[in-house]
């Protein structure tokens, strides 16, 4: 135990001396948290829209007002021809076009379906999917209002009442900010520990460790414990930022969150140490750590739902520790669930921790690498 404590003290002293790295460890995640929280919004609003109204009737103006008042469509211009609508969408001045035929009002008065064309720029699939869904919803809502006005006693065949749980207002920050905590821990823990052994080798201090009676597992434990404390400090700061700046609710137990986070931190540190034992220099270690980061961001469910991925990619994402931690942190923070629903994810992270730390300990050789 004394040898482990000695290595821990050495790591803390080294962290204290490298103040620039220590500052980046906190500043970069903080900037990422603020940028991701504020900038990434899956709910697209204020889509610039051009209107070509050939009907010029009260009914067309009423429907246009419904589009505008929804908050999803901003009427930026009125066109006098279809070519003008086409030009505005091609030039990027508008992302949607609302076109009324000349007989729009007459069709309504006859009781026939009144056609309205909504053109959407689908080069951005997220914007287009949102615009299409909202446009259809507005059309359905206005149709129901007209039907009820004509037949006051009529009732709709289906009464579907949707009640979203956990995030009823669909606030993107509630979904993204907890996940960013996992990204922050993965990024800092993997990269920092990935250069730990390599840095000792390059600075010539590895020889000093070789002549000591310290065992490989003691060296591994002594190096990761200070970073576990650092990881918890990062999580605490990030949770405070999420609660203060984005009003993210924490519905579950903070004690359980901190306890289960330990398994993810140790898995990330173990992965970093394994990279550190494989790499020959700090540049290699950094590149390998970055290679691990990319699939963690893209395949873990942080940005894209895993259920939408092909089967092979879906099962491949099960080899990423962040995949399981996202379930844990979103489950505790947003749903308020506990260990009884998350034990599968905890077991997976425990296996990763033991596997990575075991490989790192076995690969570490107490000899000078030429």
Low-confidence stretches: none
Q: Major sheet, described briefly? A: 4 strands, mixed
Q: Give the termini separation.
A: 31 Å
Helix content: 55-70%
- The average pLDDT is 82
- How do the helices and strands follow one another from N- to C-terminus? HHEHEHEHEHHHHHHHHHH
Q: Count up the helices.
A: 15
Which shape, going by the Cα principal axes? elongated
- Strand arrangement within the widest β-sheet reads 2-1-3-4
Count of beta strands: 4
Compute the CA-based radius of gyration.
28 Å
Q: How many domain modules?
A: 2
Going by helix content, strand content and strand pairing, the class is mainly alpha
* Subunit organisation of the chains: single chain
Describe the structure.
The chain has 370 residues and is mostly helical. It has helices spanning 2-17, 19-39, 58-69, 82-91, 104-110, 125-150, 172-194, 196-203, 206-210, 216-245, 254-278, 282-299, 311-316, 321-335, 339-363; strands at residues 47-53, 73-78, 96-100, 117-120. It folds into two domains: 2-40 and 170-363, no CATH class; 47-150, 3-Layer(aba) Sandwich (abc type-2 transporter like fold). Helix 3 links the parallel strand 1 and strand 2. It is elongated, with a radius of gyration of 28 Å. The longest helix is centred in the middle third of the chain and has 30 residues, at 216-245. Strands 2-1-3-4 form a four-stranded mixed beta sheet, sandwiched between helices.
């Amino acid at each position: 135990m004394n040898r482990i404590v000695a290595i821990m003290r050495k790591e803390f002293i080294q962290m204290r001396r490298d103040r620039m790295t220590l500052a980046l460890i906190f500043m970069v995640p903080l900037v990422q948290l603020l940028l991701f929280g504020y900038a990434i919004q899956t709910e697209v609003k204020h889509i610039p829209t051009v209107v070509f109204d050939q009907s010029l009737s009260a009914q067309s103006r009423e429907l246009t007002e419904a589009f505008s008042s929804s908050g999803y469509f901003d009427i930026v211009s009125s066109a006098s021809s279809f070519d003008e609508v086409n030009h505005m969408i091609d030039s990027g001045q508008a992302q949607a076009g609302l076109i009324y035929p000349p007989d729009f009002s007459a069709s309504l008065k006859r009781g026939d379906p009144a056609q309205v064309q909504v053109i959407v720029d689908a080069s951005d699939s997220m914007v287009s999917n949102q615009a299409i869904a909202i446009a259809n919803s507005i059309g359905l809502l206005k149709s129901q209002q007209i039907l009820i006005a004509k037949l006051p006693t009529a009732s709709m065949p289906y009464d579907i009442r949707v009640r979203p749980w956990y995030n009823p207002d669909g606030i993107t920050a509630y979904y993204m900010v907890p996940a960013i905590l996992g990204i922050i821990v993965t990024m800092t823990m993997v990269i920092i520990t990935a250069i730990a052994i390599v840095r000792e080798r390059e600075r010539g201090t590895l020889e000093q460790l070789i002549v000591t009676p310290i065992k490989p597992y003691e060296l591994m434990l002594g190096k990761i414990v200070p970073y576990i404390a650092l990881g918890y400090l990062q999580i605490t700061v990030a949770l405070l930022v999420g609660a203060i700046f984005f009003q993210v609710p924490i519905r579950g137990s903070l004690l359980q969150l901190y306890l289960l986070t330990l398994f993810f931190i140790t898995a990330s540190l173990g992965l970093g140490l394994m990279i550190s034992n494989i790499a020959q220099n700090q540049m290699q270690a950094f590149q390998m750590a970055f290679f691990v980061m990319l699939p963690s961001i893209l395949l873990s469910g942080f940005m894209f739902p895993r259920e939408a991925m092909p089967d092979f990619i879906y099962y491949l994402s099960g080899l990423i520790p962040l995949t399981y931690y996202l379930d844990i942190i979103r489950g505790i923070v947003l749903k308020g669930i506990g260990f009884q629903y998350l034990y599968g994810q905890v077991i997976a992270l425990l296996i990763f921790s033991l596997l990575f730390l075991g490989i790192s300990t076995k690969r570490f050789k107490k000899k000078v690498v030429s």
